[in-house]
Structures are given as structure tokens and as C-alpha cells.
Amino acid sequence: MRGDDCAGSWMVPFYPLIGGYQLTPEEANDPLALIVTDLVPLIGALDNDVISHHREAAIGEFNLLDVLRNENNGYPLSHAVTDAIALRDRLMTLYVRIRDHLAHTARPHLARFAHDIGHIIRGHMEWAQETSRYRTPENAKTGELHHATGFTVDWREHPADDNRQPPPLPSIAWWWNHIQTAEASQPPSTGPLTRLHHRTTSSRPGRPHGSAGSRARRAARAALFAARTPFPRDRRR
Question: Under CATH, which number does the domain 2-188+210-236 receive?
């Protein structure tokens, strides 16, 4: 439910359009494709709940952190943040597991789709650190500006929770069952990963493909993104 209550879900279909490829009906309805389509927005939503808690608390709203505190007899907010990040990282571990499995076994477009939508996660984190929505949030009821101190995100090599088993949440636990079945029935090949071909031609007839410098800059940005680790250490306001 939380994954559907955020902006991430409507962004997912844009990736094939922007990339210039199309999933076949069979690929789009592959169980692992359906899972990552829901999984990636959910990860973004959990990140958002941690990032935006100070803003929502200022206007009397609540999110995952408040739910965790309520379910755990009002334990400290810092404990709720720790537990929320652990759940988020377990989901992120699942996403990386599915993405890498598809990179070894799936047809190129499905493998690319599973890879591409992961940019939603990092892009959201980058945006959230810069936007005034969280640095100077406005009270939607009064119009008053709350000057927050902001926050930083430290990244680490390993997740806070790397458990490969599902959490005790029936609504999503079946996701782990599908990847376990897929891994058992179709182990990764020993060959190279599926090549993810990115369109470099312009959509405008007669336009050049770009200078060597612009291509180098795009390649550098792509390499930088790929090198970044996917697990935030914490988010300090």
C-alpha cells in the first residue's frame, strides 16, 4: 500500500520510453518484472518517510517512523529510524539480487528495465538532499516556513540488514519466494552479463550524435553513478 502512495510508481513506465526500447507483454508480465515495478517505488517511499519525518511531524502528520514507534510501545525515534533503514536495506538487497539475476538470465530489454528503474532510488536521494521541500519545509496549513537544519546521507558498502529471507510481512514476503524459485530453476550462466545497450542516436534527423567531449561526460556520469553504493548509512538532520 505504501508503495502505491508515492510518486515513484508513475515514473517506472517512463524508463523504456526514454531509453527507446519496449518490453514485450511476456516480459512486462514476468513475475520478477512485476516485483521490481512495485519494489523500487516502495524503497523510495521508505527513504522518503525517514527524510520527511521532521516536515510531517511539524504539521501533525505521521508516517512509517510513527507507526513503528506505536507498534513498539513508543520506543525512541532513533530506534524507529534504525529499524526503518534496516527494512529498507533488506528491500534494497532484494532489488539488487533480482536485478543481477535478470542481468545474467533475462532477455536484454527486461534486464535493462530492471537495471534502469534503480535510478529512481538514487535520484530521489540526491533530490531530497537539495530541495527546499525538506530543507525549508512549508506548513501546508499555515504557510509558515520551518527552517530545518537539513541532513546528510552517508553511504556504506554493506546493508544494515542483508538477510536474504523475507520479513514477517505477508503482503510482500512472496517476492522473496519468486526470486528463490527463479534462482533454483535458472542459475546464472558463467558467461558475461547481458549487455545493456543504450541509445546514442539523436531523435532528430540529421543531428550529430554529440561531440566526443559530451559523450565522455555522459560516460563519466554513468560510471560515477554505477560506482556509488546503494545503502545509506544514516540520514542526519
Answer: 1.10.600.10
